[in-house]
Amino acid sequence: MPGNQASAVPQGDGQRRAMPELGGETGQPAATLRRAEARRTQWTMNSTVRDILLERNTLSYNMKLNDFLWNHVGGRAAVGEDHNVTMQVFVQEPDDYVQNQQLLEEILKLTAYQALEAIYKLHHEGVYSLEQCRGFKSKNTVTPHAKGKLKAALTQIQTEEKARREAEERQRRAREMKFTMSTNIEDVLFKGEFCYKDMNLNDFLTLEMEGGGVVDANWNVLLREFLKEPARYIHDAGVLNEIKKTGAYARMEGTVREEMDLEEAVRRLQHERVVSLRQWKDHEGKYTLTPVTRRKLNGVLTQVLREERREVEERREARERARRRQKLELTVTTTIKDVLFRGRVRVMDMQLNDFLVMELDGMGILPANRNVLLRDFFIYPTRYISDVFLLLDIKASDRYKRMERAVRDEMDMEEDVRRLYEKGVDNLLKWSLATAEVKANVHNLTKHFLDAAFIELMSSMTMSAPIKPEGCYESVYNASWHHVVEVPGGEETGRGTTTVMDVQGSWRLSRKG
């Protein structure tokens, strides 16, 4: 009967209505739009098989057969009204409604039809979500296309979950890892993190390329192997070229090649018996490695050295606080050395190799100099770094210039302490009484510190309770301040005097009567 047969219809409208498949108003290819849309889709184990298979398609079980044919066969055929059933009914027994075998075969090959058919079959088996689909044993009841979409969604979720767990594990290890001079070089370079070179190729393609290029045979292929011979694993040159053009591929390639370089560096260092940070510190062959490797190792080494110095400084500060609890302020008997250095760590006693690692990325480091102090190095630099051009490069850096200035200031103060001690000037009181000639023989920085300390002392005396001196005093004056000094064995003058302190903290003599 004619009503039972698919009949021909004009094709013009069908082709006009099919135009949006080419990109519609955007002017972009439909495949590009579908890829962009797929990128925005985030599946979960609760996602329905219907949403995954249709993926925002306008298909519906309630769509009539003729509407389906109009949209997907280009309007070439239609059935009579008595056979124009809903697609939910049609997928159950398609040959009951389309007797034209050629048209029926064309319909059965449509991915849209296969999606609807798969949904019907899965629902019939009680499978509605991806979680239920994962444990479903009869996946072969649906077409390969539908099975592939479900598998891709499941793989995407599993891969993302794996990546999330690995990221959490990396963060946990990073929090727990504490580097020391004994830390293994490999641990320093990779810090216990997941390496992308060991990521499965198909996992990467699923996460970053929406599954483009995924081949079942490549499930155990690692990215490190893939980058050596990409065409060996993805035979389609067009697909491979499209993958290589993406930013995700470029980032992945850069990361993997960097990791492979680090792995090679570990191998070379182990061959040279350099397996720990302590051995790396004095290693002469640093510049034979890549800048990235040097930067990573020197960065952690600097961190460790600074942490050690911080701990030393904290211990020193603890001792200093304990000392200050017993002696809270300067007195006239405070030693010159304590005033100038106040117990702090002296940079001139820092090791040369530590400085070169921490401040100059290891430039010029030599095992023979492991015990050389900066004070010795700055006295005779060429004795410890004989390479003239290398030494010039080091001296040209701002960090070198700042350190040299700090070390020379400390060396000058240490020399001034020695000279003052030789003159019998070993505390603040004796400094205040020293002659102009003695003070002229010290550096300006030393004089500034000592003068400032004595002013601080005198100010504290001014703020304290009034002092009523007893005994005989003589007035002493210098260019910086006034004060009095008791004269041992002195006697009252015949005319008699009183000694008072003015508001400036200086002493003066007043006649009686």
UniProtKB/TrEMBL annotation:
Stretch list, region Disordered: 1-30
Record keywords, A-Z: Coiled coil
The organism of origin for this protein: Trypanosoma cruzi
A family per Pfam: DUF7578
Origin: domain of life: Eukaryota
DUF7578 domain span: 62-123, 196-259, 346-410
Protein name in UniProt: Putative retrotransposon hot spot (RHS) protein
Coiled coil location: 150-177, 302-329
Transmembrane regions: none
